């Protein structure tokens, strides 16, 4: 068999050598909290403004479209993760179903996704943190503001985004301390985050004004280039807002650390996706109904801005404070996923094997977590929120497409294999996920598509030069 067609044995996919095994400590409540913690975050707290700027009030349609595509992908993930309860998510499924070369491209894309998501969330958190410091100075005279040069990256007139770097290393330290401890703290913070969004909906919905929805679709439906050089439209917004929905794939990276994966993974993935879709639609409706999108579309903290403009400074403060406290749950979930993707690719020999050592005391991969922290902090220190969110989406869309293809290939190749969770209407759900992801990818900014292509060209070079020869499967082992 050609190297690029080598496949993992599904029947042995959970067998790993001593010292490279993750510890099973998580239950379904941890997974649902991990999913909601990942999904409800920067997307709704900050990117709703970016989306409204691109689509106007029709950002509601953008949320709906992105949600449908993600729901289809989530169903595919639920079936595959319960069939193959191993760390690695879409990368592992592709390795077992489509072959090593496709798996490498998917894994390389996931590295892009998770690294950029963590960077995006860190930048979004920094915006709320700096805003909170400014509020303290304005209202209490506390001289606690950061110098402008250290409060934002070069794109925003600063030099280095120090808060984004600090929160990245803080989360890395928490993950190194232990998976179960991290997941428990995450669950507590998720509750605070949901309460804050509930407060926003309760305050903003009574201020709903239908006039704010006119014109409903000022920039049209498909992606189009405006006079200011910015690509707008419902689909252009959906391609960015898509970032706000994914996160359930971080649950699938926890498969190897789940006590009862056959039951808990499907509950975690589907449960978190359904719950978050309902929350998002309510928040988006409250936001665009309470205020013209032109007012909050450019803000780094749109929900807090809406509260202040409606005359509720206390609610604005509460949302800002909760964002500061709870946005790290998104960081934690995606940082966790990133470190596990790196870990599994290292364990398979596609990346240096030394990175896949597990600390015997904490049961966590310390080396790969620290390596991830350095990479992500470097990005977060200088990155621009909307651009890195779009590029993260490109990596995710590639992974979601691969998972949907794996679902259909396995249904055809191995229809009798036991499936703890069966995706309903698989031959409808799979194609909808694939075509939806491809259309969303086409709707991304052209520059994003080029950067994604360049990233994968680099990935192919790395695979040909290093990974193809050092793969565990290439040496006759069990990956």
Automatic annotation (TrEMBL):
Record InterPro entries: AA/rel_permease1
Top-level taxon in the UniProt lineage: Bacteria
Keywords: Membrane, Transmembrane, Transmembrane helix, Transport
Location of this chain's protein in the cell: Membrane
Gene3D superfamilies in alphabetical order: Amino acid/polyamine transporter I
Membrane topology of the entry: Multi-pass membrane protein
One Pfam family here: AA_permease_2
Transmembrane segments: 31-51, 58-78, 90-111, 116-136, 156-176, 188-208, 234-255, 267-295, 315-337, 363-382, 388-410, 422-442, 448-466
Name of the featured protein: Amino acid permease
Protein's organism: Luteimonas flava
Phylogenetic lineage: Bacteria, Pseudomonadati, Pseudomonadota, Gammaproteobacteria, Lysobacterales
């Amino acid at each position: 068999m050609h190297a690029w067609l080598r496949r993992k044995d599904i029947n042995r996919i959970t067998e790993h050598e001593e010292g490279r095994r993750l510890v099973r400590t998580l239950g379904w409540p941890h997974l649902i909290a991990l999913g909601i913690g990942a999904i409800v975050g920067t997307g709704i707290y900050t990117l709703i403004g970016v989306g409204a700027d691109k689509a106007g009030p029709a950002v509601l349609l953008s949320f709906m479209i992105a949600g449908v595509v993600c729901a289809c992908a989530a169903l595919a993930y639920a079936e595959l993760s319960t069939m193959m309860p191993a760390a690695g998510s879409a990368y592992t499924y592709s390795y077992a179903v489509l072959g090593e070369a496709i798996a490498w491209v998917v894994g390389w894309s996931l590295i892009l996704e998770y690294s950029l998501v963590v960077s995006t969330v860190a930048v979004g958190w920094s915006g709320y943190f700096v805003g909170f410091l400014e509020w303290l100075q304005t209202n209490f005279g506390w001289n606690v503001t950061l110098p402008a040069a250290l409060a934002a990256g070069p794109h925003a007139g600063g030099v280095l985004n120090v808060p984004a770097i600090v929160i990245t290393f803080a989360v890395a330290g928490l993950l190194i301390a232990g998976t179960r401890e991290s997941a428990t703290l995450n669950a507590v913070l998720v509750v605070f985050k949901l309460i804050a969004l509930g407060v926003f909906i309760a305050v903003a919905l009574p201020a709903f004004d239908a006039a704010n929805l006119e014109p409903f679709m000022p920039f049209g439906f498909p992606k189009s280039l405006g006079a200011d050089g910015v690509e707008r439209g419902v689909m252009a917004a959906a391609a960015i807002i898509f970032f706000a929905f994914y996160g359930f794939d971080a649950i699938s990276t926890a498969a190897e650390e789940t006590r009862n994966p056959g039951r808990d993974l499907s509950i975690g993935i589907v449960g978190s996706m359904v719950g978050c879709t309902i929350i998002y639609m309510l928040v988006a409706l409250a936001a665009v109904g309470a205020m013209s999108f032109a007012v909050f579309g450019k803000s780094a903290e749109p929900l807090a801005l809406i509260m202040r403009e409606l005359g509720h400074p206390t609610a604005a403060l509460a949302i800002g404070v909760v964002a500061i406290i709870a946005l790290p749950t998104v960081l934690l979930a995606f940082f966790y996923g990133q470190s596990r993707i790196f870990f599994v690719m290292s364990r398979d020999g596609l990346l240096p094997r030394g990175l896949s050592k597990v600390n015997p005391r904490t049961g966590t991969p310390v080396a790969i977590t620290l390596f991830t922290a350095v990479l992500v902090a470097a990005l977060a220190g200088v990155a621009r929120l909307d651009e890195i969110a779009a590029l993260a989406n490109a990596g995710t869309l590639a992974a979601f497409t691969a998972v949907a293809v794996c679902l259909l290939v396995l249904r055809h190749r191995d229809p009798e294999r036991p499936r703890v969770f069966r995706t309903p209407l698989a031959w409808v759900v799979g194609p909808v996920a694939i075509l939806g992801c491809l259309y969303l990818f086409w709707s991304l900014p052209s520059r994003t598509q080029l950067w994604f292509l360049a990233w994968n060209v680099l990935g192919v070079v790395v695979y040909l030069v290093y990974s193809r020869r050092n793969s565990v499967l290439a040496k006759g082992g069990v990956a």
